[in-house]
Specification:
Elements (H helix, E strand, L loop, with lengths): L2 H15 L11 H13 L10 H25 L5 H27 L2 H18 L12 H9 L1
Length: 150
């Protein structure tokens, strides 16, 4: 085996030995479930120990965002009054702030970039075998299909 092949094999074995980080004990159940979901969606070695505090905050912001949207839905279900309109406005602003925080932390952890690259590769692979819109099919392409059908 070449040195390059051995190095690749060594990296693959090392990646298999990497365990995914467990949620910290100070997270509540909902936050811990979000932690596990995010960690499980990424490669095993994605989250270095130095990123864990950022991931903790991301989980907390996701929980807060969900709480705000639940409250907003409950207020929207009530009869519109000046008080409910004020409350909706306040909750909508708090939810929007959480959404910005989630987006920023996701970018810091390179979560959105990973998904974008993976999606792009998938689309490129699907398009690779298709004829380009500007390519002209061979004139005898239809004739060949007719001949093989008989």
């Amino acid at each position: 085996m070449s040195r390059k092949g051995a190095a690749v094999l060594g990296l693959a074995q090392a990646e298999l030995n990497v365990s995914r980080p467990a949620p910290p004990a100070d997270l509540i159940a909902e936050e811990a479930a979000i932690w596990r979901q995010i960690v499980d969606d990424m490669p095993a070695n994605w989250f270095a120990r130095a990123t864990w505090p950022v991931l903790v905050e991301l989980c907390r912001h996701i929980c807060l965002s969900r709480a705000f949207i639940e409250q907003l839905r409950a207020v929207r279900a009530k009869k519109p009054t000046s008080e409910t309109v004020r409350m909706m406005d306040k909750l909508a602003k708090m939810h929007a702030q959480q959404s910005r925080n989630i987006a920023q932390l996701s970018q810091k952890l390179r979560l959105t970039q990973y998904y974008d690259q993976r999606s792009l590769r998938k689309v490129k692979a699907q398009l690779a075998g298709q004829r380009k819109p500007w390519e002209i099919p061979p004139e005898n392409e239809n004739e060949e299909e007719e001949i093989t059908e008989h």
